[in-house]
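EI: anyone free to look at a 306-residue chain?
SC: sure, send it
EI:
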Amino acid sequence: MSSVLAFFLSPGRSGTQWITDVLRRDYSDIAEVVHEPVTHNYRPKSTLRTGRFADAIEQSDELRQHLARIETLLQSGRSYIETGWPAFAWIPYFMDKYQPAIRLVHVTRHPVYFALSMETHGFYNPDTRNDGYVQHAQLDPTDPGVLHKEYGDRWNGLSRFEKCLFQWLEIHAYALELHRKHPDVPFLRLRMEDLTASNAAWAEMTHFLGLPARGAKAQAPRRGPVDRYKYRRDAISDPTLIFNHPAVLKLAAEFGYDPYDFDRSEIAGRYQRPWHQRTLKSIGKRIIPKRYQRAVGQMAHRLWDS
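SC: here you go
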């Protein structure tokens, strides 16, 4: 088998941890499968559509070593499959270096569920999160390479849920742009919902990646979601806010999603903390001195959502 360099294009929170685990379980002898090997160091806020790859490499020893490892792997005859979302802005870089070997898998997820999940991770919430992902990967309309700059006029009035929809829109629009500009690069689009429910979709993906069918292992029955970073919030956003975003609605329809296809009770069960946890948190705010509340809250958050 020839070496394959494959990247999964998604905005995150789209089943890629599960995909990574199953591919790694079944194909680790012929391929290295990784999720987010350099975390935020691809720096899509500054590298998306700008070509500023050399700047990012100069700023990160981890990234420089990572790129060297990919080259070594491919030269050895092993395939390399990266499923994590922050690499999306670097596809042109990899095309220039490895185009005969590169393959792109575009994974979509219903925008409502994506945005709710992303929101639980503290994206677009500076009061709770300001790490490298926020500083270098969380897109906003002022970033030089974003497409939908019209969001800048109303950005400050948007909820965190709506800003997560913006991230969904930008990254998926870029995936479509890559496919349109580079029709010679093998490209496969799959819905996360189909991958987790259909052995046929899984078989289509592994065949596309050049991975051999291996009897029963060619199937990927989902024994349960794989999410090492599952969090919940005290209150969940109104999913009907999606109807204020016509560009999101248009792209969702192109991917086969009905914007009304969400279940409020399912959403509450998946993304909202149970009432007793919310009550305990409220009591804690009244009895714990203010200067300790944030640290105690973060510890409780990790315990409750583990």
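EI: Confidence is low (pLDDT under 50) at residues 275-281.
SC: 👍
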